[in-house]
């Protein structure tokens, strides 16, 4: 059967009759998307869909992609994500995506482009800009490196050491890496003698080649040229366009150094002679669909443009008039209407002229109006029966919702079919079908007895998720990666202590050139460490970077500190092992779940579980249903979904007839948890009580009575739940939130509880991944380090204090029903700040909160804020942690340059916990008044938008608190003294020693090897010092030959053929691995002599050693200190390497050395 005749909405005969349809009407719910998707089947031609706002753009994109049965290219033109006259410029990835879309439009590679109406008013660079700036390159074509670098700079590419993001390039000898916006992967080009030798695509994370290609194209990464000539032309036009003294304009003075600062996008027309709209980039045959509501959106957006222009007139920098920067809505509407092919509205058209109008036979779904006493699932059946629906498709995007519907229908004897593609539904016969695809609102086609049930129709709420375009970075090892070392960073040498990294230097010793790491110690002492001993140093991770931490060379102070830390680590290891053994001996309650009831409860969760969340829930439920007691810690940033884990654990325990106790550090958090649990358990026969000090004595005694009698199932409160007055007849689960915030006495009480019930602790303090790995199964930890899909990254702006900016930020939040946090960290003048804010924010209710207030008063204010009784809270950093307030989605931080990176990250984390876009404004003095460190901190927090990576990157100093939470406060002190990395190693060694007490003690030394052979990564091969440092660390840390081989392949791939000295480095590292496995502590070698020094735990057999000496008496000699001396037979570097390798192989005597092979 012809595909066209299978469509539900558009009749093939209408299309074939040649009738031109100018209006579509009576399109309800997602039928609007279906009509466009079906229309795309009749003729392959370029199309544009104009939507009224971002939300409809996103939902219609998802729906059209589902309904579309072809492989046609569907793209969304991204919003700039800035408001008119914003002081910040659009993000680089947004501009790159726009460049890619424009480039594809010009080449005719997009079948349907979907845009938000507001994008029609922003002026874009002229078509000739993108035409002239694109570059097609092919293998064996002539292209000089200088020519390519000039082109990249002009087109907005930034030079970096390692290419990770679009719009970046890196140069290494004859190789240039770049990431063009039109490519999925970055490109590696090898230029030999001004000719392109090869073009390769590579992975941005591993940096390794994916495949070779013969040709590629490079397009502009920005929307204006950045070469010197264009910048000079821009400045000339700026002088001519505005009156006044240009020396007072920040942008004019700084554009040469920082072309993307100070809202450069607000002056884009000054780079060109003319501008274009997105409509100008369309093919003349493009079919345009216009949602009628988009017309009013254009007019409203124009009002916003003029209002913001008026608000920002007092700025120190002159603004371009709206008519210069934007297209006028009236003219643009005329242009769109002139080219518009189809005007669409959901309601029925009154126009009776069938030649231009088409009403579709769809009706809205009214499931929610069916019998009030019926459940949602019963309403579904009633609806299908009353309306004689023979074919039904239900959108159930989460597994919970899918299970609820499937299980219910099966219990009614109705077969359910799951489908992934729309074509499956069309081609199959009558019945009920379920799809995991998101369709927001459904529709019915009565004459075809067909219904599409949207998620919102059935569940009343759509699954919230944000469809992002950016690929997540792998956050592992970010903290300890020595690539991030900068001059002045504290490092820890295992033997010599804490010093300050001072860069790399080249030294020639005994005619052998090598590279050394310079480390400064107390009293100006300097240690120059060969790069072959890199494994002995790690970055110091602690709460302080004070120079008072520096160790003294030549003193035994460091040995004493390490010895004490080692003893304490052994104590922790013993305690962990003891707790582990006890937990395995005690018998748990085996709290298993009824699957059907559990899925019903889970359906109340209207979000999509992240992988981390799902794993944590699975681990908790497995623990609870096992024969051992649960003792698990859930670690995840605020808003990452820990509460859902607690809810599901609580449900399982209560359904097994047990009581659940939830303990939190503050009354406010207790109230919040109480409300959350009440809401989720509202449909279940579960009694929940809150114990609070704000309650009357009579009420508290009544609640305690219901707990003792077993009437209360879930008890939520502060440490009051541990009161001796309370007895729990059948306690099955204890959940503790932020255990580290309780006092010593309460912690001791909790320790006793752990042995008798299932115990679940939750924390928002980061727990280091490496510590998690070190203690392994001894402590059950579930990490939730990925944010929910619905949680958008906080959009961050850096600005001077501008009344207009603050007013606009507050007004925008209040207009959407939200609340604002204003952080000012000086109690002395916080009242003055409030008075200043009230002067230009009349009518906005605000309160003050700070640490010197009485606790009860502070609690009252926070509770009022939580209940949305006022709009703006002016506070000190007392709000750094505490209540989860989803309605607060804008934070303004005054004097942000005075905060540390981690503190800024935590403060910014107070907002952005709902599906709304959230904003953080960092107010600072003018840039020229900031310190270099202050600027770096602010730029870093502005750049860190990937929530998962940011959680780890920005909070590495907080990890010490996390380690202390697991190991105890005393251990936090030890970590401060020696650094986290070394402490982690000591703990790991202690655990291994206890576990292997019947085996030989594991040696912790690493062979020191000096062969008198040049071994380094040469500067001309790898110019970037941080990259060299990173590779030195990786080579030094290699555990086997396979890792070294992988590094060798990567070096050749990224930097070209390895020079001799670098090959020597890899070969020496291999020898070091063999020697270390044999228990050889040190190897020293010159052109004439060599010596091996054996460790007490050496694996070299005495017989093998004696055989070697006896058979080569003139060459070998055994010294009293049990070292082996030998004569070197050849002075050539390569032959000396071969000689020592043969010798080590002989001593190994075919032993299986797992660490080397």
**Architecture per CATH nomenclature, i.e. the level-2 architecture of the largest domain:** 3-Layer(aba) Sandwich
Radius of gyration: 34 Å
Q: Distance N terminus to C terminus?
A: 61 Å
Provide a count of the helices. Answer: 37
Which CATH top level class of the largest domain fits?
A: Alpha Beta
Beta-sheet strand percentage?
15-25%
Low-confidence parts lasting 5 or more residues at pLDDT below 50? 1-5, 15-19, 369-374, 464-483, 946-960, 998-1002, 1151-1157
What's the story with the biggest beta sheet? 7 strands, parallel
CATH topology-level fold name of the largest domain: Rossmann fold
Q: Class by helix and strand content?
A: alpha/beta
Give the overall form.
Answer: globular
Strand adjacency order, main sheet: 3-4-2-13-14-1-15
The domain tally reads 7
Count of extended strands: 43
Task: Tell me the helix content.
Answer: 25-40%
What's the mean pLDDT score? 82
How would you characterize the overall build of this protein?
With 1157 residues, the chain is of the alpha/beta class. The chain folds into 7 domains: 3-126 and 274-359, 3-Layer(aba) Sandwich (Rossmann fold), CATH 3.40.50.11180; 135-218, Penicillin-binding protein 1b fold, CATH 3.30.2060; 368-459, Rossmann fold; 484-555, Thrombin, subunit H (Beta Barrel); 586-784, Rossmann fold (3-Layer(aba) Sandwich); 795-945, Rossmann fold (3-Layer(aba) Sandwich), CATH 3.40.50; 1036-1148, Transcription-repair-coupling factor, D7 domain (Aspartate Aminotransferase, domain 1, Alpha-Beta Complex), CATH 3.90.1150. It has 37 helices and 43 strands. It starts with 11 loop residues before the first helix and ends in a 9-residue tail after the last helix.
């Amino acid at each position: 059967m012809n595909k066209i005749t299978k469509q539900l909405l558009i009749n093939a005969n209408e299309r074939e009759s040649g009738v031109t349809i100018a209006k579509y009407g009576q399109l309800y719910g997602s039928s609007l998307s279906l009509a466009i998707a079906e229309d795309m089947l009749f003729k392959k031609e370029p199309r544009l869909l104009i939507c009224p706002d971002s939300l409809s753009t996103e939902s219609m994109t998802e729906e059209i992609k589902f309904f579309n049965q072809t492989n046609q290219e569907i793209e969304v033109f991204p919003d700039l994500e800035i408001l008119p006259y914003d002081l910040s410029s659009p993000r680089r990835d947004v501009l790159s995506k726009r460049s890619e879309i424009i480039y594809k439009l010009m080449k005719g590679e997009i079948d349907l482009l979907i845009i938000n109406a507001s994008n029609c008013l922003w002026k874009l660079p002229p078509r000739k800009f993108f035409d002239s700036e694109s570059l097609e390159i092919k293998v064996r074509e002539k292209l000089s490196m200088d020519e390519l670098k000039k082109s990249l700079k002009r087109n907005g590419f930034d030079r970096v050491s390692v290419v990770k993001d679009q719009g970046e390039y890196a140069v290494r000898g004859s190789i240039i890496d770049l990431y063009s916006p039109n490519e999925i992967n970055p490109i590696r080009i090898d230029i030999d003698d001004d000719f392109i030798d090869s073009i390769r695509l590579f992975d941005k994370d591993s940096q390794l080649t994916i495949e070779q290609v013969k040709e590629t194209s490079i397009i502009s990464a920005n929307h204006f040229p950045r070469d010197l000539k264009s910048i000079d032309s821009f400045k000339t036009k700026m002088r001519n366009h505005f009156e006044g003294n240009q020396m007072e304009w920040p942008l004019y003075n700084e554009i040469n150094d920082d072309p993307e600062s100070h809202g450069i996008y607000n002056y884009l027309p000054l780079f060109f002679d003319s501008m274009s709209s997105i409509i100008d980039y369309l093919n003349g045959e493009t079919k345009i669909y216009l949602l009628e509501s988009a017309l009013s959106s254009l007019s409203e957006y124009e009002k916003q443009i003029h209002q913001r222009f008026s608000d920002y007139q007092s700025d120190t920098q002159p603004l371009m008039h709206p008519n210069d920067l934007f297209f006028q809505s009236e003219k643009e509407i005329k242009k769109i209407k002139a080219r518009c092919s189809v005007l669409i509205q959901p309601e029925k058209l009154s126009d009776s002229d069938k030649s231009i109008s088409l009403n579709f036979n769809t009706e809205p779904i009214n499931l929610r109006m069916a019998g009030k006493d019926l459940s949602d699932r019963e309403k579904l059946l009633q609806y299908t029966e009353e309306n004689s629906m023979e074919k039904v498709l239900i959108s159930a995007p989460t597994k919970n919702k899918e299970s609820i519907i499937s299980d219910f229908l099966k219990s009614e004897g109705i077969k359910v079919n799951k489908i992934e593609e729309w074509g499956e539904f069309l081609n199959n016969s009558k019945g009920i079908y379920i799809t995991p695809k998101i369709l927001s609102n459904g529709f019915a086609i009565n004459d075809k007895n067909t219904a599409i049930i949207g998620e919102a129709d059935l569940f009343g709420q759509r699954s919230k998720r944000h469809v992002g375009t950016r690929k997540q970075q792998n956050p592992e090892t970010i903290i300890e990666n020595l690539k991030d070392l900068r001059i002045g960073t504290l490092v820890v040498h295992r033997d010599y202590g804490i010093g300050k990294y001072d860069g790399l230097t080249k030294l020639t010793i005994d005619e052998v050139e090598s590279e050394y790491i310079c480390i400064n110690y107390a009293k100006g002492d300097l240690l120059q460490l060969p790069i072959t001993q890199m494994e002995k140093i790690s970055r110091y991770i602690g709460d302080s970077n004070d120079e008072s931490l520096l160790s003294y060379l030549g003193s035994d102070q460091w040995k004493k500190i390490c010895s004490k830390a080692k003893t304490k680590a052994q104590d922790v290891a013993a305690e962990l092992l003891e707790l582990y053994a006890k937990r395995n001996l005690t018998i748990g309650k085996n709290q298993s779940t009824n699957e059907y009831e559990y899925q019903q409860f889970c359906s109340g969760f209207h979000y999509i579980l992240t992988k981390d969340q799902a794993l944590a829930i699975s681990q908790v439920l497995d623990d609870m249903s096992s024969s051992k007691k649960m003792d698990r810690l859930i670690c995840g940033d605020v808003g990452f979904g820990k509460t859902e884990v607690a809810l599901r654990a609580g449900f399982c325990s209560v359904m097994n007839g047990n009581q659940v106790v939830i303990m939190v550090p503050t009354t406010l958090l207790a109230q919040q948890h109480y409300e959350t649990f009440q809401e989720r358990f509202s449909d279940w026969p579960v009694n929940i009580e809150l114990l609070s000090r704000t309650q009357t004595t009579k009420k508290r005694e009544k609640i305690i009575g219901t707990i003792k009698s077993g009437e209360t199932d879930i008890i939520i409160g502060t440490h009051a739940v541990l009161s001796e007055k309370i007895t729990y007849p059948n306690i099955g689960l204890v959940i503790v939130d932020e255990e580290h915030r309780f006092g010593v006495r309460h912690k001791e009480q909790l320790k006793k509880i752990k042995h008798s019930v299932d115990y679940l602790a939750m924390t928002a303090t980061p727990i280091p991944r490496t510590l998690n790995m070190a203690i392994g199964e001894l402590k059950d930890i579930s990490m939730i380090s990925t944010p929910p899909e619905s949680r958008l990254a906080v959009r961050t702006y850096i600005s001077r204090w501008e009344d207009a900016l603050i007013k606009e930020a507050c007004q925008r939040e209040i207009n959407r029903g939200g609340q604002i946090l204003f952080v000012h960290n000086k109690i002395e003048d916080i009242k003055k700040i409030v008075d200043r804010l009230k002067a230009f924010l009349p009518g906005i209710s605000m309160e003050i909160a700070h640490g010197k207030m009485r606790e009860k008063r502070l609690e009252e204010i926070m509770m009022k804020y939580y209940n949305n009784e006022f709009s703006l809270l002016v506070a000190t950093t007392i709000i750094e942690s505490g209540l989860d307030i989803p309605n607060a989605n804008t934070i303004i931080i005054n004097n942000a340059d005075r905060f540390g990176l981690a503190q800024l990250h935590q403060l910014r984390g107070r907002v952005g916990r709902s599906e709304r876009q959230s904003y953080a404004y960092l107010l600072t003095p003018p840039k020229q008044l900031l310190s270099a460190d202050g600027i770096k901190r602010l730029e870093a927090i502005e750049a860190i938008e990937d929530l998962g990576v940011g959680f780890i990157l920005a909070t590495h100093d907080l990890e010490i608190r996390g380690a202390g939470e697991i190991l105890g406060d005393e251990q936090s002190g030890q970590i401060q003294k020696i650094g986290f990395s070394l402490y982690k190693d000591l703990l790991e060694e202690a655990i291994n020693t206890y576990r292997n007490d019947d085996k030989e003690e594991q040696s912790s030394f690493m062979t020191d090897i000096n062969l008198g052979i040049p071994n380094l990564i040469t500067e001309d091969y790898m110019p970037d010092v941080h990259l060299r440092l990173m590779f030195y660390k990786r080579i030094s840390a290699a555990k086997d030959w396979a890792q070294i081989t992988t590094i060798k392949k990567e070096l050749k791939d990224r930097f070209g053929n390895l020079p001799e000295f670098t090959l020597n480095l890899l070969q020496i590292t291999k020898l070091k691995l063999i020697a270390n496995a044999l228990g050889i502590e040190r190897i020293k070698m010159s052109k004439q002599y060599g010596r091996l020094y054996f460790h007490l735990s050496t694996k070299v057999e005495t017989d093998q050693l004696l055989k070697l000496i006896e058979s080569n008496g003139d060459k070998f000699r055994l010294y009293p200190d049990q070292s082996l001396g030998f004569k070197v037979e050849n002075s050539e570097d390569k032959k000396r390497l071969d000689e020592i390798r043969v010798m080590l192989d002989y001593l190994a005597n075919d032993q299986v050395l797992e660490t080397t092979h």
